[in-house]
Amino acid sequence: MENYRFDNLDKSILRSLMSNARTPYAELAKQCGVSAGTIHVRIEKMRQAGVITGTQVRVDAKRLGYDVCCFIGINLNNARDYPHTLELLRELEEVVEAYYTTGNYSIFIKVMARSIEHLQDVLINKVQAIEAIQSTETLISLQNPINRSVTP
Fold first, then answer.
1. CA 94/CA 119 separation, integer angstroms
2. Which residue in 82, 92, 99 sits closest to 127, CA to CA?
3. Each residue of 86-145: pLDDT tens digit?
4. Within 5-151, where are the H helices?
5. pTM of the model as a whole
6. At what angle do helices 25-32 and 36-48 cross, to 10 degrees?
7. In 10 A of CB 69, how many CB atoms?
8. Which pLDDT belongs to residue 57?
């Protein structure tokens, strides 16, 4: 089901689930004016098509003690170093996102640290210790005023 065709019902279901993934099928059915069976079938079709890939718990990083969010642009010595460098970055628990990019950097990562001192340790002893990394540039996030998923 590579080219899943969305209709307004699918979009309504997705919007509701994105707002609260724990909404019961009966409640979704009531909101959408269809049967719970229809909701079940639609959600299952979207799962099979890879549109819905799972559910997740969102946590507040600050409440877990991670007060510093930053982005690090990474330049590699060689493009062929990408796969191995990605494996090494994946092992660092502070790296929460990674992107293979065009432009100024080969890899762009998002890092969460408990403090500036923790960030310094991650930079010097973990990220910059990877031999394939030629250079880095760190951008510290001051706030995250927009944080949302794409709208179906």
1. 9
2. 92
3. 999 999 999 999 999 999 999 999 999 999 999 999 999 999 999 999 999 999 999 999
4. 8-19, 25-32, 36-48, 82-90, 116-121
5. 0.82
6. 110
7. 19
8. 82
